[in-house]
Design a protein that fits this description.
Strand content: 15-25%
Largest sheet: 4 strands, antiparallel
Distance between the termini: 36 Å
Strand order of the largest sheet: 1-2-4-3
Shape: globular
Length: about 170
């Protein structure tokens, strides 16, 4: 898939087919995250692969909009050093966002949908993921083949994005 086509066509998928992710597809997704650029090439992230249905149902409670985890065949927890304890907090989140977007786009090319979950209950996430004290999970990504395969080829919705002219300024605001 062409890069622009992937960027322009990717959709959030919250409803997944009852089908496991092929191991070679998971491998590609994880490698895409690993290949993301990183500030000073520190690569401080870690990924926890989650497949156990009961565990995914528990993790669906870590945030208000994390319910999709319960229906996903696979999720990946994105783990970093605790950004609140690091002067590099912003670069950690930037790097993690790049890794997440790489994973999302690699999955999309393979016909796999995804959706992020923001963690609000950090203590619950820490306990369920078995994280050491110096690590934190702010986001999890659900992955799965879409329950509705037409999602993969659906056209962009009219009005779905802010017009470019409203976002772009030249030289100054």
């Amino acid at each position: 898939m062409e890069t622009w086509r992937a960027i322009n066509s990717v959709r959030v998928v919250r409803s997944f087919a009852d089908r496991p992710i092929a191991s070679e597809h998971l491998d590609r997704i994880l490698k895409a995250g690993r290949r993301a650029g990183s500030s000073k090439n520190e690569q401080v992230w870690a990924f926890i692969v989650l497949r156990d249905r009961a565990h995914l149902r528990e993790l669906a409670e870590v945030g208000r909009y994390a319910g999709h985890l319960a229906g996903a065949p696979l999720a990946i927890a994105l783990v970093t050093p605790d950004p609140s304890a690091s002067p590099k907090g912003y670069s950690l989140m930037w790097d993690l966002g790049r890794a997440a977007q790489n994973m999302v786009l690699a999955a999309w090319e393979l016909g796999i949908g995804s959706v992020p979950a923001t963690v609000y209950d950090f203590d619950l996430a820490r306990r369920l993921l078995g994280l050491p004290a110096e690590r934190r999970c702010d986001f999890l990504l659900s992955f799965g083949y879409p329950a509705d395969p037409s999602m993969l080829i659906a056209p962009n919705r009219a009005g779905g994005r802010v017009e470019l002219e409203a976002l772009v300024h030249e030289e100054r605001w």
